[in-house]
Protein: Putative flavoprotein involved in K+ transport
Organism: Pseudomonas moorei
Amino acid sequence: MTSHLTSIKTQHHSVIVVGGGQAGLSASYYLQQEGVDHLVLEKHSVTHTWRNQRWDAFSLVTPNWQCALPGYTYVDDFKGADPHGFMKKDEINAYLAGFVKAVNAPVREGVTVQRVVPRAIGGFEVHTSQGEFSADQVIVASGGYHTPIIPRLAERLPAGVHQLHSEQYRNPAALPAGNVLVVGSGQSGAQIAEDLHLAGRKVFLAVGDAPRCARFYRGKDVVDWLAEMGYYEIGVDTHPLREGVRDNTNHYVTGRDGGRDIDLRKFAVEGMELLGRLEGLQGTRMQFALNLAESLDSADAVYNRINGSIDNYIEQHGIEAPAGERYVPNWTPEQERSEVDLVAAGITSIIWCIGFSPDFTWVEAPVFNGRGHPGHQRGVTAQPGLYFLGLPWLYTWGSGRFSGVAKDARYLVDQISSDRAESLIQGKRAAAR
């Protein structure tokens, strides 16, 4: 543990930050700069998720130069190999260890926040597994991926089928012998399916509606092009989809082995069996929608649309770059399967890669919508003194990532400082009356 521990003797803090991941530590960095008394409460240990909920071959899908945590950027502080490469799991944890040390946040680990309750007099009660605290302001920085989503039909699967969620997957060798069904083709599902496929396992992949994008196009990483085009600076308030962009599934691509496209059609040519959306289960027979061709075509359309926007940018700015080309499918499903018998197909393992749902039930404030997501404007809620940080598209594409969380944290701490100054002014006026 590199951060200094804070005693619980002082129960009140100006700000309590819930969560010791990159978001919570980023908030602490700026709160320290502003001289604001605060405490970070972490249920496990700082940056726990990165160490414990990623598979062994995991690598970032964003290039290293985008890793720009406050006061500790990859380029300036972390002695990595290549700003345009993609950090692997061990490198990510080494980078984060350096960030934890640099921030030296006032943090208490192993503390579960059980309730955050607004007080009538202002501020909050914070009830935890290690006692009671109070705070003038609370930043919820525990992320938005809390409860693994597993469909109810999983309860009816044969007892001999090994099931796990993507957060539990580590490597192909850890699974029982036999074939594997991966359900979901977002970033985790596509990459886990690739990991198994490269290890020689027979994979069945139930394809969802996730889009895809190219890794490299016209001479450089697509991320570099999009950054140059200003895409990562677009706020949710100016994005064409507005807040609807928060419901979008991430594009699948990989940083593995220096980075490349993930082409599910290529996997099919090599022996992976692609299926449509999972719809049901009868005994040992799983049913799938006949929408595989539609899903693949939709993902490819996004791929070509992104490349087309890069083509337009290059042309408009007279940039010299290698010629581009439109992706043309190298495989199409001749006849889609609506049913697969697990026993006949030799499927012994199922990996659920269909995401997470938020769980903010411990925050007792009237700021949530019907799906349990907080309503906010750039992390600022309608409940005075309550803020959220580290959520996907809190404000920009990078909000929940190493690339954008610093800007969000800076913005919230500025809001906190402004609110504190206003409260001080009002207090002085009240005292003078």
